[in-house]
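Hi U.,

Before I forget, here's the chain from the pilot set. I'm dumping it here mostly so it's searchable later in email.
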Amino acid sequence: MRVPELRYRLPLFPLTTVLLPGALMPLHIFEERYRDMVEHCLSGNRRFGMVYHDWDEQGPFLSEVGRIGCVGEIREHQPLEDGRSLIVVEGVERFRIEDGIESDTAYFQALVSALPDTTLMRGEELALRRKESIRLFHEVVASLSERPDELPELEADQEISYLLAQTIQVDPRWHQRLLELTDEGSRLARLDRVLRTVLD
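Structure:
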């Protein structure tokens, strides 16, 4: 059995938006260095890292150790005549930057490692916790004057916090803080507070 790499090299795409595991995100690739990055990814495993970064507030992106992002895998790629492209990426897993890399590429790269969950709740306790969040979510949906055409399929025997988070349109910094939590129970508690606020 192949042992997964603990640290691996990953191209990085800093943006003022947050990709969550399991989410699909369309992107317009127009800047030259990210055109190069996409070309590199398409010739390999189609993966790069998305990291939340607000250039106006945070200044230059420095691939700081400890920053947390989400690996995106290119699912669709539509090249345009002038070199730009439209892509759709799917969030795969979280990562933590272990070390920035200076290379001859124009785009950012870093050594990263996967960031697994350390959920304390297990079994029935976690299932009950998920059922409460699902109940609140459906209560919020029922209270809306216009309901969305499609709703996520939520089951108490699977991780649901990222699915729920995708339905909430808030400041991306809120999504980033949620992404950084390594305990599903804590993520669900954070989501429940938002859902209860909507109901109130």
